[in-house]
Structure formats: structure tokens, C-alpha cells
Specification:
The structure is a homodimer. By secondary structure, the first copy, chain A, is α+β, with helices and mostly antiparallel strands. The first copy, chain A, is 42% helix and 21% strand. Chain A has 13 helices and 16 strands. Strand 1 of chain A pairs antiparallel with strand 1 of chain B.
Chain lengths: 411, 411
């Protein structure tokens, strides 16, 4: 609540829950104070069938959640011998003495399930509140407490909480959710192409949603009840038919991983030459585990000298057309391809801003070249965004240029 | 609530509010449905003196906030001629017809202040709810509605909302908040070094807090009331004295910007040679506006061939010590420095994982070399993290190695 930490739990948990057919109706963040925590949990208990609380299970003095929730529900805490043993082993393995206060993490409220933590010390806890004293009808609620660090919370949610939720709050009938990932078209164009053709399916219950990110539009298809699988499959087939090669993946697929996969399948290699994106594309490619199989190297050539020395861009080209030009982008791509001996090379040169623009070449001007064994292609979009967004959008366009070339070459 | 978008508003707004002396007591996210929105606003009105609502002011059918809040407070909406004119001009300037539904953005609830939007179409709105019918004592509440896109919300908050908040809910007396940014020490070490020496000041009201990120620890000093400036200044001086060169900045300063600033002041240049970080460091440096003045270029040499061809690493070195070794890091740094003609070069080689480790060189092993005109320094940390965190932590260590060298050279 002081703004020192970005809350990534909301997006991560909501996405997994929505894809599993569960609607999150409220997300609340409060300071680490007893009144705020108890008041918020009490309100959630009055409202919800399933509550996930994150953080506050650690060993420090501001980790109050376990205690406060046990207090609110009138449950005693007892030390769980198995957890205590794990804590002692955890520190023994690392050759460190166990700090005295660590022991609070072995405390378990009466009747709670213990969710073992494979990646840290604090286990999760799951409590069935039945009857639920905060609801007029006493209807039961499950309350789950998870540790705050994402690397502890995420596997615990996937492996232990989601199965518990499915068992304790089963959906009414089947639920199928399919997200189709597209690129290279705006949201309104995507909608125009598919909304009409999907109308017979939405009329019989298909739910259709769109989500636009920079350079990408997700189409979310949801079907429920008997025949859900068939309805979703029909819808997906129609979407794929109408959007063709603009579809680059499904669910959580990313464009960088798609490009790495396509190159890996074809046993081909990539080189990069970046000016204005300053390493963003190289960093994106190398975020994909296994990228080393296809990525030979990249050159970030900010200065004209570096463009000449490292890539062999000709001084005449720079003098005649300037560093930000199609001719320079072309020579950068061909230079990177030749010098690194790659099958493909992408080169990017442009003006990221905030300064450096001119009337002829305003901030946002960019040239993207793709060199292949047969041709060198050059795109010239204008990406008028702040600096970080400029890099992101330009990277997306460059990867998409390569992807379209790879799938064209395959077909 | 479907998890397609990361909520960055919470962190951004909370940080600015906390630094201005205002405590955020609750942050709530709800789906775009009438019941949820009205219920949440009603609860906030019963609780808070100042409420900020974000999003839902656009022209589409799920932008319900303006309507719902006016309805909840029993206020009529009227079209504001000045806003309508701005909307018409906005589309005329772009040579596009104004879609019919855009006009809803010109609707203003009775008695609301209009907060002009310099970066988009939907203006913000600020309403004084006085008396507040949702509070037993009728105490007034301010309710501010801001557009969702960060580039519209942020300047509107800074330029219009914060002054309104300061005027309408002034703090009791002075408030000074100073965040000291440190690197190269863990949280407990920082605390050990400063807590005791600050005790006389905390005894007279200084508030002291810590926030640890990967590789960084922030020390937050807050003083209130008369003498706050003096108390905070004394505290800052003591912290700086105890932590010395571990302090790299204050408030929102970033290590990459600090390094760019130091190099710019000294008119010196930087080159990079990255293997396992794959362009992360180049991307971080080029995120800083004006980096082109000091950054000549970077080489991302994933393959052994690229290390030889582009950086001149000797085949014997690779054969004898391996690509992940101090010797290779050293030759990479010296090669990058020489080939790009830079004053400093950083080279990084290591094993990011998840695979590729061995008993002798486990996943997380990394060698960071800094080549200067006089020496080449090599660090050998082991950064056992997931792949994105590995890159981030390693980048931080590399920039810190350079920063310490730059400030040592200056002194």
C-alpha cells in the first residue's frame, strides 16, 4: 500500500480462475494492520464461497494473517510437528541456525488443511468455515491462505488450490474456455471479421470476448453445459478460418516463443541487429528457454561507427540516407546475417524519442528489415508511443514479420 | 478480473499518495457490472474521506462508471458544451468522423468539477459529496473519477488530483518523506548498520521503513510536524554516512539512469558483451532517454562462434576454460572495449537455466567482467533464480560494478 511493490497476484490468479470457469467478483488489498485485515476478511466471508488470502504468513512481526484469521474464526493455533520438522530440515540443509521466530510458521489453526510449500518455508492453509457465522444463511465458505512470494504461491495454487476448488465448488456442468491469440490486426478489424460468422453460435450460448494488447488481440471463446466442447471447437475453427495466419497461438502462447519454436522445428538460425530497440528484441528472444538452439547473436549498434565496424554498413549509405532509413536497415540486416552466418537476420533502426525527431522523420519512425537467403524485406511503421512502449510494439512487429515469413516458407 | 491486464494503477497511485503523506487504506477491483460497481462505491463512501475511481469513462457499452455513480448520488447528467467542443476538435484534427457514442464522454454529473484530459478524450470528474448520505455523521467525501489508460491518468493525477487533495484534505502539519536507494547489501545488513544510530531520532518521531527488491534495499524516512525537515535531513545524513557508496540515489532514481548520468558527466562511453543475459543489460541502458550519448553498442554473443568472430575470444580460452568462465568473460569485455573503442566494457557469461548446469558450474553461475583503461575486474556470483529474475539480478550486479568503479575513479 506504500507503492513499493507491484501486485502481480491479481492478474495471475484471476486469469487461472477465469480460464477454469470461476468468476472473481472482488479483489481487495489492505495495509498490514490487524483492524484492516480482520475487517476485510469478515466482509469477504459475508459475501463469497471461496476466498484466497495472500501474504502475511512469514516469520516477521508484520506477518499477522494466520493469527488474525484464527482469532476471527475462534480457532486455536497448535504447532504442527511435521511442519516444524520441515522447517528445521530447511535450515539444517543450508547449514544455518533456525531463527527463533521461524517457528510461528509451523502454527496451524484447528481443523485447517496444510498445503506444503515446495519452494519456501511458510506452508499454505485451507479452512472450511462451516457453518459460516458471517452469512445469514450460514452457508459454508472455504478460506485459503497462501504465501506471498510468487514462486511459492503459483505452484501451490496450481497443484493444491485449484483441485480443492474444483472438488469443493464444482461448476454446474461443462466449461470450455479457449483463447485465440492474434497479431497484425486491430480489435475492430478482428471483430468485423468474426462477429457475424459466429452469430449462430453466440445465439446458442457461445460467449465471445476480445482483449487488445499492443499489437495483439485475444479472442476469448467460452462455452458451457452439454455440447460445450463441440461448440467451442466449432467456434475456434471458424475463427481460425476467418483470421488465417494472423492467429499465432492459443491460451498463454507468446510471439517470441512461437518464433523460437518455428525456427527450432526448421533447424534454422537467427541473428539480430538493433539500434533504437537497444537490445529489447534480443532480450525477448533469450527470455525463451532453449533459445540458444536458434539464436546466434545480436548486435546493438547505437552509434554510426558501430553500424559500420560491426555490421559493415557503408559510410555512403549513412551519409546519403541517414542512420534511420530503409537502406541502412537493409545493410544492417544483411551484415548481421553474413557476419553471424545465420539463416535469418532482423535489423531495426528508428527514433524511439522523446527527442531526436524531425519533420521528415518524426519520433516513432522506424525501419525493420528481415534478411533471408532470397530477399531482404523492409517495413516502415511509425510507432508514436512512449519509449518503453515503442520498443515493445516495434519488437512485436519485427517478430511478426519473421513469423509470417517462416509460415509462408513452410506452406 | 479475467486476468488479461496487469493492474499498475495500485502501485503507481499508492506510491505517490504515500510520498505525499496520505495513507491508502484500501484498494478494490471489481468486474464491469452495475451491481458490483455501485456496491463498491457505496462501501467506499461509507468509509473514506477521499476516493479515487479509475476506468469505465470511455465511450463503449461497458463504460458504466460515470452513469452509475451519478445514479448512486442522485445527480443528473448534462452534456458539457466545452467538453463536447474538445471532443469534436479531437476528431476533426485527426480527420476522422466522431463516432456517435463518443458524446457520452461529455456528460457531467451536476456539481462535478471537470478535470481536462491532455492525452485522450475522456475528462476526469471530481465530486464533493457533502453531506455524505452513506456516513452516519454525514461527513463529506471527495470522489474522483479518472480515465483508465496510464498515460491519461498519471498526468491528470499529478497536475489536478494531488493539488485538489492537498487543498481539500490538508495534512495536520508538515510531512517529509525521503527514500534512500541502496544496492549491494541485504536488508538485514542495512538494518544492522543504521537502526542503532537512528534510535535517538526514531525516539523523537522519525519513522523508519525498509523495502527490499532484488539487489536493492530502499530506506524510507518519514518525519511529521514542526521540525520535520530538520529531522529528515539529520536522518538522511546519518544513513548516508553509515551506508556510504552503497547509496546510489533517492526517491525514484534507478541504477541504469544513475550509470548513464555518471558516464554522461564524465563524457565517457560504454560497450557491452552479453551472453546469458541476452541483451537485458543493453535494453536496460537504452531505456534511459539520452543513453545514446554514452552507449556505443552491445554484442549479444550466444554462440561460441559469435564470441570468437565478434569479440575476438580465443578458441584456446574457450577450449581450456569453457564459455562460462572468468577467462572468457575477461576476453569478452576486453574485446568489446577494443572493438567499439569504449572507455568501459561490461561482459557477462553464465548459465541462466532452467537447463545447462553441471556440478562444477550449476545453473545460476555467472561471470561478470568490467574492462577499463587500467584493469579488468571479474565477479563470480551464483544467481539461483528463475530465468527472468536471473537476468534482472545479474544486470543489477553488472551496473553496480560499473557504478562503484566510476565513483571510485571520481574520488
Amino acid at each position: 500500500m506504500l507503492g513499493f511493490v507491484l501486485n502481480t497476484h491479481q492478474q495471475w490468479l484471476c486469469r487461472r480462475l477465469a480460464d477454469a470457469g470461476y468468476t472473481v467478483t472482488r479483489q481487495v488489498a489492505v495495509p498490514d494492520t490487524a483492524t484492516d485485515i480482520q475487517q476485510t476478511v469478515r466482509e469477504a466471508l459475508a459475501r463469497a464461497d471461496f476466498i484466497i488470502v495472500t501474504g502475511g504468513l512469514g516469520p516477521t512481526s508484520d506477518d499477522l494473517t494466520r493469527d488474525l484469521i484464527a482469532g476471527l474464526l475462534g480457532r486455536n493455533l497448535r504447532v504442527d510437528a511435521a511442519i516444524l520438522k520441515r522447517l528445521e530440515d530447511f535450515f539444517a540443509e543450508r547449514g544455518r541456525p533456525m531463527p527463533a521466530h521461524t517457528q510461528v510458521q509451523a502454527q496451524v489453526p484447528d481443523g485447517a488443511l496444510v498445503l506444503p510449500n515446495r519452494h519456501g518455508t511458510a506452508p499454505g492453509l485451507a479452512m472450511e468455515v462451516n457453518p459460516n457465522p458471517f452469512r445469514a444463511d450460514g452457508k459454508k465458505t472455504w478460506l485459503v491462505m497462501l504465501p506471498g512470494p510468487p514462486r511459492e504461491l503459483r505452484p501451490m495454487f496450481t497443484d493444491q488450490v485449484l483441485p480443492l476448488l474444483r472438488k469443493e465448488s464444482p461448476l454446474d456442468g461443462a466449461f470450455v474456455c479457449r483463447t485465440i491469440r492474434t497479431t497484425g490486426m486491430g480489435e475492430s478489424v478482428v471483430e468485423e471479421r468474426i462477429a457475424t460468422v459466429l452469430q449462430p453460435l453466440t445465439a446458442v450460448g457461445l460467449e465471445l470476448g476480445y482483449c487488445a494488447h499492443y499489437g495483439e488481440v485475444d479472442v476469448r471463446l467460452v462455452a458451457r453445459g452439454s455440447g460445450a466442447e463441440k461448440l467451442a471447437a466449432e467456434a475456434e475453427a471458424l475463427v481460425r478460418e476467418r483470421l488465417g495466419s494472423h492467429v499465432f497461438g492459443v491460451q498463454d502462447d507468446q510471439l517470441n516463443a512461437t518464433v523460437v519454436r518455428l525456427l527450432t522445428e526448421r533447424k534454422e538460425t537467427l541473428a539480430l541487429a538493433e539500434s533504437c530497440t537497444g537490445g529489447y528484441v534480443a532480450n525477448s528472444i533469450t527470455d525463451v528457454p532453449g533459445a540458444s538452439a536458434i539464436f546466434l547473436g545480436g548486435l546493438v549498434t547505437y552509434s554510426n561507427e558501430a553500424k559500420q565496424t560491426l555490421l559493415g554498413v557503408r559510410p555512403e549509405t549513412l551519409a546519403q540516407h541517414g542512420a534511420v532509413s530503409g537502406a541502412t536497415a537493409r545493410e544492417m540486416a544483411e551484415g548481421a546475417r553474413n557476419r553471424l552466418g545465420a539463416d535469418y537476420a532482423i535489423a531495426i533502426t528508428g527514433i524511439a524519442g522523446p527527442s531526436g525527431g524531425s519533420d521528415a522523420k518524426p519520433v516513432g519512425t522506424v525501419f525493420i528489415a528481415l534478411a533471408t537467403s532470397r530477399h531482404t524485406f523492409v517495413l516502415n511503421p511509425v510507432n508514436r508511443y512512449d519509449r518503453p512502449t515503442f520498443k515493445q510494439v516495434t519488437c512485436q512487429q519485427a517478430l511478426e514479420l519473421l513469423r509470417r515469413n517462416l509460415i509462408k516458407a513452410s506452406s
